[in-house]
Design a protein that fits this description.
The chain is mostly helical. It folds into 2 domains: about 10-120, no CATH class; about 140-245, no CATH class. It has helices at about 10-30, 35-40, 55, 70-85, 125-130, 140-145, 150-170, 175-190, 195-245. It comes from Streptomyces xinghaiensis. InterPro entries: CRISPR-assoc_prot_Cse2, Cse2_sf. Pfam families: CRISPR_Cse2.
């Protein structure tokens, strides 16, 4: 009777691999300015025009099967967008290994032994249990860009975010690759995190499933916006009731004084 950890389902295994890839790209961008420059050179460019990226990205492409140009392009595009950030925004990291050995402790994509940087054999089972099958969509990121805005800036952000998101959902594959860098830079400037692994997954699937992906982006955006508006309306109603005296907000309970000690004659 086997007592080993059950294998991931395909969606979970795929997400683990893409999380490993995007985490490694972020790590190498933090620690190696030359690698970050090489990756950034691929922004909005075709994969045949980015020779400096091949030494970094090729090792992560799925192995053991034919990889379409569309799938390869997604890997390159996400790496370029991650690199298109100020180095300070990537945080700090330990120095990266030499380029020739940087990937020796991380199995190439498409193998059963792949790990994200920092994983160890002892925590492999735990990480398998906690890895979600899907991540946060780009629609959720645009919703966060609005909800984190203060006052009147929120209205301006809502108009811009909604317009940008709708523009992306109407694009062909080529159009999406052309418009995504500016959209991601907009989110970055507002300090909104992007789920790179999920974006990679969506880019790969876009040619065949753009309608489904667009629907998810828009539904996630409007779902979060509705929840935020509902919460703010409830807070406003509560504050109005408190100010009118119709809602009693109990204060801290007064402490009973300690009884005086009994004295004996």
């Amino acid at each position: 009777m086997s007592t080993g950890t059950p294998p991931d389902d395909p969606a979970t295994a795929r997400r683990r691999q893409r999380l490993a890839y995007t985490a490694w790209i972020e790590q190498i961008c933090r620690s190696d300015p030359g690698a970050r420059t090489a990756l950034r050179s691929g922004l909005r460019r075709d994969i045949d025009d980015v020779p400096r990226m091949h030494r970094l990205v090729t090792r992560w492409l799925p192995q053991g099967r034919a990889v379409s140009a569309t799938e390869q392009r997604a890997y390159y595009a996400v790496a370029a967008m991650i690199a298109d950030r100020p180095r300070s925004s990537l945080g700090t990291a330990a120095p990266a290994p030499d380029d020739d050995t940087a990937h020796e402790d991380t199995a190439p994509a498409g193998t059963d032994s792949e790990k994200s940087p920092g994983d160890s054999d002892s925590d492999g089972a735990a990480s398998q249990k906690t890895t979600a099958r899907y991540g946060d969509s780009l629609g959720m990121a645009f919703a966060l860009a609005v909800t984190t805005g203060p006052g009147r800036d929120r209205e301006m952000r809502e108009s811009t975010a909604e317009a940008r998101l709708n523009l992306l959902t109407r694009q062909s594959t080529n159009g999406l690759h052309r418009h995504l860098p500016a959209a991601v830079r907009y989110l970055r400037d507002l300090a909104v995190p992007v789920d790179w692994a999920q974006l990679l997954d969506d880019l790969i699937a876009w040619p065949a499933h753009s309608g489904r992906i667009s629907r998810r982006w828009l539904q996630d955006y409007y779902r979060l916006r509705a929840a935020d508006l509902r919460a703010k309306a409830e807070d406003g109603d509560r504050q109005e009731l408190e100010e009118s005296g119709l809602l009693h907000v109990p204060g801290p309970r007064a402490q009973s004084p300690d009884p005086s000690p009994t004295t004996t004659a």
